[in-house]
Amino acid sequence: MVSFQFHGEPKLATYRKACNGQIFLLTEINDLIDEYGIPSEEKCQTEERFKYDKYIEAQVWDDSIINEYKTA
Question: What is the pTM of this model?
Fold first, then answer.
């Protein structure tokens, strides 16, 4: 969700990337890593443009779990 903050917050424009403010599928993650690299503590401390790139957030959704609680 941090990505959405960068997308809409004017004071964070310096750190904004084209991928901010979007949601990606698991099948798209490798392309993002190819383009932006893996976040690291070293990069966020040594390169200002990566200051807030400390992790990749993932949300895992699985319908099989939800289906257990659904009523017909």
Answer: 0.61
Spatial distance between the Cα atoms of 26 and 61, rounded to a whole number of angstroms:
11
Q: What's the sign of the alpha-carbon dihedral 22, 28, 34, 38? A: positive
**Residues 9-34: pLDDT tens digits?**
787 888 888 888 888 888 998 998 99
Neighbours of 5 (CB within 10 A): 14
Sequence-ordered list of residues with C-beta below 8 angstroms from that of 49, at least 6 positions apart, any chain:
14, 15
Cα 57 to Cα 21, 60, 72, distances in angstroms:
13, 10, 33
Average pLDDT over residues 39-60: 83
- The distance of Cα 60 from the centroid of its chain, to the nearest Å, equals 13
Per DSSP, the three-state class of 32 is helix
